[in-house]
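Quick check before the chapter quiz. The format below is the same one you will see on the exam, so make sure you can read both the input and the output lines.
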Amino acid sequence: MTGGRFTAVVDGIALTLLLVNSVVLAMLELFFLPLRFDGIVLPDLGGAPFPVTVLLAIVTTPWLVSQTAQHAVRMGGPAGFGGVSLGLWFMTVVGVGLSGPGGDLMLPQDWRTIALVAGGALPAAIVLGRVLAQSRIDRARASGRAMP
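Here is the expected output.
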């Protein structure tokens, strides 16, 4: 196996794992969103909500988008492929959240749902925009054209 072909295989495996990771992280963030300080899992502090998964979404979804785009570009694909990981994350949160196991509603009907969707989608969308802009700049430089 030549070096270029080996790199393409490794990038393909990494890309697949990143997309699977998008779905897995979305499910974990969704399932642990209702976590509370109620004395069952966390200490008893009056039942206050503890949406730590929102922080996880803020950190992981932009990283997934940038890494997916990076591997897609190295394989010769478009930088916009990074949006696939964001789309999978969003569809998993909404799909499983609205029709969870046994038809249960997994998304709490309060501010935590908005925080999860906004915390995961907005930073990732900003990173996707940055990746797409950088890709356009790189293509223009490679072709010898100046950017407008």
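If your answer matched, good. The first helix runs from residue 3 to 31.
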